[in-house]
Each structure stands twice: as structure tokens, then as C-alpha cells.
Design brief:
Strand content: 25-35%
Largest sheet: 7 strands, mixed
Distance between the termini: 12 Å
Helix content: 25-40%
CATH class: Alpha Beta
Structural class: alpha/beta
Number of helices: 9
Order of helices and strands: EHEEHHEHEHHEEEEEHHEHE
Number of strands: 12
Strand order of the largest sheet: 6-5-4-3-2-1-12
Radius of gyration: 17 Å
Low-confidence stretches: none
Number of domains: 1
Length: 256
């Protein structure tokens, strides 16, 4: 099967250079977009991530940490509800929601897709459920709403990924970790080539291409292992925050 991919912009933010590139870019700030992706083929619809929720909550946290220098800006027309209202996403027709990880800007709206099976990392899910969970220390970064929704689902509607699976022909999901214990990447075959959506193991394409890890990691070794694997298979890279993806590479927002 060959897939088409629709790229949805879901607000923007900024971050200091060392968060983008480990121990580097000390005097630079980066503008970032937040994306989620709709993948379609053969009557099947897959949503990779569900975007931001209440940005007021995360912005309060960011204000305390960065004294107002960094915030999430989410215009009304870039909210997932706006795309749904315009008919660009039809919740009832989404067969699978793949959560690249459980951060607020990737998982917040999973509960909108009642018919979908939810796909997520088994390791990440089990780590969250532990009494001691140092990597999930903050309910603003890891909102409890999506967790409670997923936990309420019947077992047959949850798919937990150990290492990797072929979810559908030509659509592979594999564990990368690195940024959080729950990071998954998605590989989709398209007419344009093999597309890999990296999750936040890479914020920018140059993380992967230059083998330079992100600064916001929980496991540095997993970052390097992920880049090695992604570089070996990807014709096209889609990270979740690189503005060039829409501004330069795919201004139409569509990959076929």
C-alpha cells in the first residue's frame, strides 16, 4: 500500500539552542512549529499525534521556567477542533491514533477519536504506570486527561508497541525513545518515497542528518541509535517541530 500524508500545523513556540542540539548553539534561539500528521490509504485513516490542548496550562509552567521568554502560541485556526470543523479531519473515520509520545503537544486530544484504536509505546506506558516515574514528573508536560482516556479503553482498542510492528501493509511503527521513554517513529511508503516521522527524538531534520542529538533527552544512546536507523531507511524526514517542513519542503502540506 502507498500512503498520502497531510501535515497539520498546530501552533508554534521557540526554544534555546542547547535544547535543539546537545551542548551546542548556546547563543541561538530557534522558532519551532508543532505538527500532527494524517496518513491515508485504502480506506484507512491514521492520525499521528493529536496536538496541543490547553496552552494556558503549559504557558504558566513555561513562564515560571523561562520568565516569559518562551510560550506556546496556538491560533484558533490551527487548533485540531478548527481542522475538524472545516472537515479536514473527520474523527469518526479515524481508524488508528498513533501517539508518538505522551507530551501535551502530541497527545492532548486523543479522546476526540472515539472509534480509533490507540497505538503507543508499551515501555512508555508501563513506565508511566510505575509509582516512581522520574521521566513523567510534570502533569503540565504529561497531561493526565489522555492517560485517563487511554486507560478507560477496552483492551482490544489499545495497541502497545514493544520494538516494532507493521500496523498496516507499508506502514511500520518502531520504538526510538531518546526524548522520552514513550517515543515512537512511523515509517510510511508513499509515491514520493519512504517517509519517516521521527517523533521528538529529533526536533529538527539536522538532528538526524548530522547525527547531533537533541538536548532534551532522557537517554542519549537511544538518540544515536534512532538516528542510525532512521538515516538508513528514510527518503523523507518529518520531525514534529521543524518549520522548514512546511515553509520550504512541503508548502502544500501534502505528501503523495
Amino acid at each position: 500500500m502507498k500512503y498520502s500524508i497531510r501535515i497539520f500545523k498546530n501552533g508554534q513556540t521557540s526554544a534555546p539552542g542547547p535544547e535543539m542540539f546537545y551542548l551546542s548553539e548556546w547563543d541561538r534561539d530557534y522558532n519551532l512549529y508543532t505538527y500532527f500528521f494524517q496518513i491515508k490509504s485504502g480506506g484507512k485513516t491514521i492520525l499521528l499525534d493529536t496536538g496541543c490542548g490547553d496552552t494556558d496550562i503549559i504557558n504558566k509552567m513555561l513562564f515560571k521556567e523561562f520568565n516569559g521568554k518562551i510560550s506556546f502560541d496556538l491560533p484558533e485556526n490551527e487548533r485540531i477542533e478548527s481542522y475538524i470543523k472545516k472537515g479536514e479531519i473527520i474523527p469518526e473515520e479515524v481508524d488508528y491514533v498513533v501517539l508518538s509520545h505522551l507530551h501535551h503537544d502530541h497527545s492532548s486530544n486523543v479522546g476526540l477519536f472515539k472509534n480509533a484504536k490507540v497505538v503507543l509505546s508499551k515501555k512508555g506506558w508501563l513506565e508511566y504506570m510505575k509509582k516512581e516515574r522520574p521521566y513523567y514528573y510534570n502533569d503540565a508536560l504529561f497531561p493526565t486527561g489522555p492517560i485517563k482516556y487511554i486507560a478507560s479503553l477496552p483492551a482490544e482498542k489499545i495497541i502497545l508497541i514493544d520494538d516494532e510492528i507493521e500496523l498496516l501493509p507499508g506502514l511500520r511503527i518502531f520504538y526510538v525513545g531518546g526524548h522520552t521513554p514513550c517515543c515512537l517513529a512511523v515509517e510510511a511508503m508513499t509515491q514520493s518515497g519512504r517517509v519517516v516521522m521521527t517523533s521528538d527524538v529529533a526536533f529538527l531534520k539536522d538532528n538526524v542528518k548530522n547525527n547531533h542529538p537533541i538536548g532534551l533527552f532522557y537517554n542519549l544512546w537511544e538518540c544515536f541509535e534512532a538516528y542510525k536507523k532512521i538515516n538508513s531507511i528514510a527518503d523523507i524526514l518529518l520531525t514534529s517541530h521543524d518549520p522548514d517542513i512546511l515553509d520550504k519542503d512541503f508548502p502544500s502540506g501534502i505528501i503523495k
